[in-house]
Amino acid sequence: MKHWIARVMVALLVVTMVGGWQSAVAQDDATTVKVAETPELGQFLTDAEGRTLYLWTVDVQPSTSFCYGPCVDFWPLFTADEPLTLPDGVEGSLTTVERSDGTAQVAYNDIPLYYFAGDKAPGDVNGQWAGDSWFVVAPGETFGTRAAQVLLDVSTPVASTTVLIASDPTLGDYFTDAEGRTLYLFTNDTEIFTSTCTGDCLANWPPVPGATGRLTLPSGASGELALMPGNDGSTQLAYNGIPLYYFAGDTEPGQLNGQGVGGVWWIVAPGAELGAATPVAS
Prior knowledge:
The chain has helices at 2-14, 70-74, 145-154, 200-204, and strands at residues 22-23, 33-38, 42-47, 54-56, 94-98, 104-108, 111-112, 134-136, 163-168, 172-177, 184-186, 225-229, 235-239, 242-243, 265-267. A three-stranded antiparallel beta sheet has the order 1-2-3, with no helix packed on it. The chain has two domains: 2-154, no CATH class; 163-267, no CATH class. By secondary structure, the chain is an alpha+beta fold. The longest helix is centred in the N-terminal third of the chain and has 13 residues, at 2-14.
């Protein structure tokens, strides 16, 4: 009887909510991947520690990754040792993708799998919709089906882009939010998707909050919008891995009072990269 009760307790714990996410199926701790679930996203694959796994719709050939160079810094490859196993009840197969750079990557149903550098803890799903091309992977998902669905989704007009581009005669082009409020970067932020603005800093430089659903740039703007954990406990919007902020001294759209403050706060130009010289800093 005691052994039976213990097994029941373990089964109950497996489906208990943990930090906003939950396991979705009974699963062995030893499986290569697991299944989590949120009300917004439904069921999706994670690694054995609960870290979310993603697909990239740019991977248009089965078991072939097109993510190389800086892409891998933002989207680290999911790797695992043999044998590659799925939880009971999850259909499909896990295989190893041999990449041209000599590394190996795990694929699910021929879909190469990735982590997101902006996910800092198990259960984070900040990579969802990043660049209109990165998505969680549903159990049973087959290669190519998500790409087809995304084409339908992005063909539907949205009311506005997540950010806009404004222009100043002296400073050139820079990003604002959808209401025209200027966005800033902090040069003390030296790691992608990592904010060093805490305490009183946050009062003066509030994080730009993360949006739900699609994260869209204006037509012609290069780069990628994504979400990251903010130091105020919410999600924060990032551009090319750069945390984005408002300035409390800007009280109306169009103001640029934060430009150059302390020699570390600057407007964000389209195409900006973390650590690169700020085009408007001189």
